[in-house]
Amino acid sequence: MIKLDIKQYTAKTAELAYENALNEYKVPKEELSFTVVQEAAKTGFLGLRTIPAIIEVYLNENHLLANLQDFLNIILDKFEGTFYSNLKIFGKTIVVSLEGEGLEKLIGKYGRTLGALQHLLMIYVNRMTDTKIDVKLDIGEYRKNRKKHIEEIADSTARKAIREGSTELAPMFSFERKIIHEYIRKNFPQLETKSVGLEPYRKVVVYAKELQTTGSKKR
User: Fold this and answer.
1) How many helices (H) and strands (E) does the chain have?
2) Range list of H helices, 165-205
3) Lowest CB count within 10 Å: 35, 136, 150, 158, which one?
4) Beta bridge pairs of residue 50
């Protein structure tokens, strides 16, 4: 569970402490969660001593998604078209899907605009939290369709590496490189892969295992 801006509140009851927190945070109720640190109780002779309730309050994942949605809307307003977005969070990964009209402008040539937009969303989210969050953006199922094409490239590249000993691909986005790595590892156990270079020019090298040099495989 992702927790942002954690604070403790004390009051006669946990409910009253939570109401005080809502007044301070000034966010919708569904964006603010709490856990009870200490239950309110009465102790001492005849229960004359009161122990206050203590709660830990934090902005939850709904707050993170709401802010990311607002940021995305600001970006989409700069493009001509009608767009519909859907944001879901799975653990520490936020999946953003876009549908509508005019999607080709958001995808860009070879998916470059899509990649840049995903990078912006990831920077924005990770400035809100100390927890490392991954953002995966898909536009009109571009990634799903692109995966099939990348797997075809991986297959032909692997066969070339078998013939020639090694080969390398043109620079790719990280999700495309991951497809290459996984496809070759699964289907060509006699080969190794590694990513070399710096973003945005990072690319995959494919080579026979007997040519493997010292060093760990990087993605």
Assistant:
1) 6, 11
2) 174-187
3) 35
4) 42
What are φ and ψ of residue 96, in 5° steps? -115, 125
SS3 114: helix
Cβ atoms of residues 21 and 32 within 8 Å: yes
Residue for token digits 């876009």?
98
Q: How many CB atoms sit inside 10 A of residue 58's CB?
A: 18
CA 219 to CA 206: how far, in whole Å? 12
Nearest-angstrom CA–CA distance, 31 and 70: 14
Long-range contacts of 196-201 (CB under 8 A, 24+ apart): 196/168, 197/171, 199/174, 200/115, 200/171, 201/171
Whole-number Å distance between alpha carbons of 144 and 186: 19
Q: pLDDT, tens digit, for every residue of 25-83?
A: 999 999 999 999 988 887 755 556 688 999 999 999 999 999 999 999 999 999 988 99
Report field, pTM of the whole predicted structure over 0.85: no
Asked whether 96 and 120 are in contact (CB, 8 A), the reply is no
> Is the Cβ–Cβ distance between 123 and 112 less than 8 Å?
no
Q: Give residue 216's pLDDT.
A: 43
Residue type, 113: T
What are 209's two structure tokens?
């295992």
Strand, helix or coil at 70? helix
> What's the farthest any 2 CA atoms get from each other in the chain?
88
Q: How far apart are CA 144 and CA 79, in angstroms?
A: 23
